[in-house]
């Protein structure tokens, strides 16, 4: 696999996104009031500043062929902090070779790759494949951001956490945004009504979580999307947290996590691959 070409494709998609945002603002597409226009203007300015800070294709250490053009993480085992050993690189299921990450138990996983550890505003894109489709069997993708855990360890204390999960009742999935402050986990939003969503959970889908500070003073904004046939679609309306926790912290990490007590719950995700961290 030519990773450089894959990243160039992602930058091409980024330019397409900027073009579509410009058109949306010029023609007020799906913008119903002044507040929505101001939020989208701030989002556009933020997205315009983004660049890829790290691309993780979830492989073991590889000898460098030459100096890379792009920030490609060379080793999943060295570029992320794991709180347990209950994970594996699966060479039988992946988006791009040689493997994907499979969590086999409770894990918190935080990136420590250079340039990714202070992101009060940022974006994660990742492929995710669940064991099950939309029904009551647990299956979820958890993404942490503005995590305050020191480099060298991984945890879920003092962080935002966005969770996309299957559930036991129709529509058989929900999205929850949590905040953990000093060990107390609070639900900020739980959403079960969608603008759009993937047709199935048990196949590879690409997801995108973006967090930024609204220029109009609304605080933290969170946008969650998925890629449908080359076009990014909002799964739900943007979420907002006026407290804008940890925006000025000297450490703001991101990665994968879950909202459950590790003493009784035994899995938080199935497979992820081709994870990209973006930032200004």
Look up the CATH topology: Jelly Rolls
H and E order: HHEHEEEEEEEEEEEEEEE
Query: Can you give the mean pLDDT?
Result: 87
What does the overall shape look like? globular
Keywords, please?
seven-stranded antiparallel sheet, nine-stranded antiparallel sheet, Jelly Rolls, 16% helix, 3 helices, 280 residues, alpha+beta, globular
Question: Could you characterize the architecture of this molecule?
Answer:
With 280 residues, the protein is of the alpha+beta class. The protein has one domain: Jelly Rolls (Sandwich). 16% of the residues lie in helices and 35% in strands. It is built from three helices and 16 strands. Strands 1, 3, 4, 6, 11, 12, 13, 14 and 16 form a nine-stranded antiparallel beta sheet that branches. The chain has a seven-stranded antiparallel beta sheet with strand order 2-5-15-7-8-9-10. Strand 11 and strand 12 form a beta hairpin. Helix 1 runs antiparallel to helix 2. The protein is globular and about 50 Å long. The two termini are 27 Å apart. About 2% of the residues have low confidence.
How are the SSEs ordered, and which strands pair?
Elements: H1 3-27, H2 34-48, E1 51-56, H3 76-79, E2 80-82, E3 87-90, E4 100-103, E5 109-111, E6 122-129, E7 140-147, E8 159-166, E9 173-181, E10 184-191, E11 205-213, E12 220-228, E13 231-234, E14 239-241, E15 253-256, E16 271-279
Antiparallel strand pairs: 1-16, 2-5, 3-4, 4-16, 5-15, 6-11, 6-16, 7-8, 7-15, 8-9, 9-10, 11-12, 12-13, 12-14
């Amino acid at each position: 696999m030519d990773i450089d070409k894959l990243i160039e494709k992602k930058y091409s998609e980024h330019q397409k996104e900027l073009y579509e945002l410009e058109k949306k603002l010029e023609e007020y597409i799906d913008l119903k009031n002044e507040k929505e226009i101001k939020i989208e203007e701030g989002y556009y300015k933020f997205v315009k500043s983004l660049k890829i800070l790290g691309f993780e294709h979830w492989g073991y250490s590889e000898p460098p062929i030459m100096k890379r053009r792009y920030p490609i993480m060379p080793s999943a085992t060295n570029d992320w902090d794991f709180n347990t050993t209950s994970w594996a690189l699966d060479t039988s299921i992946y988006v791009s070779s040689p493997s994907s990450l499979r969590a086999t138990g409770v894990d918190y996983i935080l990136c420590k790759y250079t340039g990714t550890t202070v992101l009060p505003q940022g974006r994660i894109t990742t492929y995710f494949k669940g064991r099950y489709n939309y029904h009551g069997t647990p299956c979820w993708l958890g993404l942490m951001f503005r995590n305050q855990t020191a480099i060298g360890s991984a945890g879920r204390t003092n962080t935002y956490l966005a969770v996309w999960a299957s559930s036991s009742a129709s529509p058989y999935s929900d999205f929850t945004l949590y905040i953990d402050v000093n060990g107390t986990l609070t639900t900020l939003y739980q959403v079960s009504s969608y603008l759009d969503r993937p047709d199935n959970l048990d196949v590879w889908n690409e997801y995108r979580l973006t967090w930024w500070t609204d220029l109009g003073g609304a605080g933290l904004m969170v946008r969650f999307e998925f890629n449908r046939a080359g076009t990014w679609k909002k799964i739900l309306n943007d979420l907002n947290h006026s407290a804008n926790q940890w925006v000025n912290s000297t450490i703001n990490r991101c990665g994968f996590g879950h909202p459950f007590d590790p003493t009784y719950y035994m899995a938080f995700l199935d497979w992820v691959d081709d994870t990209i961290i973006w930032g200004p």
